[in-house]
Amino acid sequence: MNEGAHDHKIRLLMDLRRTGVTDTRVLSALETVPREAFVSDPFLEHAYDNRALPIDCGQTISQPLVVGLMTQYLDVGARDKVLEIGTGSGYQAAVLSKVARRVYTVERHGPLLAQAEERFKRLSLTNIVTRHGDGFKGWPEQAPFSRIMVTAAAREIPESLTDQLDDGGIMVLPVGDPDQQWVMRVTRSNHRLHTERLMAVRFVPLLGGVPRNESEE
To answer: Is the pTM of this model over 0.85?
Structure first.
């Protein structure tokens, strides 16, 4: 990383701390994971801007503030087994991998997943396991999960995912239609679900299945 980019990154981390990302483990993960490794070439100079950027397949890499806050809301411990729905560029999974024991991440777009896998390999992130498939299905063979993060907006909280949440577990996800979405935190306690509305956001929609020209693996 050149000196200018390093200064830009330090400035971004200071901004994030000022705007609510106060968990030192989350800040350390954001500092350690090179966002420029997850951004496509035309947008490299904006890697440390606090904004979402476009990636392939009509998707986006989320704004660093949203990544930081959603990771903080998830309250991940070093022993936690995390399910992520929507690998995208791989940036959020990489951040989670720095605070969790293991991350299982599902992506419906095969080309995006292949790029993310290459990045994980290059950065030696060995505690991330990937799957190409329908995010609504989660990863039942590995359930239950102590933490679940969804990085695309469902119209309502998917029961197929809350069913894979361990007792005492937490799920963080955007919910709503394109005009109004909120990050929700769902906590399972004694087999009951408690939900909280945390912040307004704008995410791409969570879609079922995989694109027609791809098959699930």
So the answer is: yes
